[in-house]
Amino acid sequence: MGILDARISHIDSVRNTIKLVLNHFAKQSLSKEVENHLSVAADLAFSDELLFEKFQRWLEERTDETLLFHINRFFEKRDQKPLTPFDRDLTSKREQVEMSIKESVRNRQKKIFAQRITKLATERNLLTNDQLGEFLGVSGEQARKFKAGENKPQLATLKSIADSFKVSVEYLIGISD
């Protein structure tokens, strides 16, 4: 009997949540399409956990726009035609090419950064990794990784390095000369 009682309790919870949401939106001036979507979504929320979560979240946050956005998105996704095998294959290939390009750009930037930081360090007679690290405010190991092209710093560190050498961030990553 425990499972049945839990299920009945869940249905009552869904019903009460949906009722509160629908009563609230009944007082709003919504288009017929939005009213229809809201009504259908309310019916579907009994069997769709993710949709029901959106209604529950509305109870907690009371943000009408967010709920209506999620309901609209639900219907957009539901009405989309599934991709054909050919389209899925093209999408996969496009994603692979995009990832390859991004990786190539990252590697190029690491290489240029390594060359430029090594050149700047040599010009300032910072010959050891520890000297360079101290000058930049990073560890000697981190300085070694920068010079070897193993690491490219985060933007804040990159800005700090550029300031230390009195060059632009664009110069360090190879966007400008």
Report what the structure shows.
α5 (85-123) crosses α7. The chain has helices at 2-26, 32-44, 49-61, 64-79, 85-123, 129-136, 140-148, 155-165, 169-172. The mean pLDDT is 84. It is 78% helix and 0% strand. The longest helix has 39 residues, at 85-123. With 177 residues, the chain is mostly helical. The chain has 2 domains: 2-79, no CATH class; 100-172, lambda repressor-like DNA-binding domains (434 Repressor (Amino-terminal Domain), Orthogonal Bundle), CATH 1.10.260. 16% of the residues are buried. The chain is built from 9 helices and no strands.
Number of helices: 9
Oligomer class: single chain
Order of helices and strands: HHHHHHHHH
Q: Count structural domains.
A: 2
Q: Work out the number of β strands.
A: 0
Question: End-to-end distance, in Å?
Answer: 76 Å
Rg result: 28 Å
Helix content: over 70%
Low-confidence stretches: none
Overall average residue pLDDT? 84
Percentage beta strand = under 5%
- Can you tell me the overall shape? elongated
Entry summary:
The chain has 177 residues and is mainly alpha-helical.
Annotate the secondary structure layout.
Layout: H1 2-26, H2 32-44, H3 49-61, H4 64-79, H5 85-123, H6 129-136, H7 140-148, H8 155-165, H9 169-172
Helix pairs in contact: 1-2, 1-3, 2-4, 3-4, 5-7, 6-7
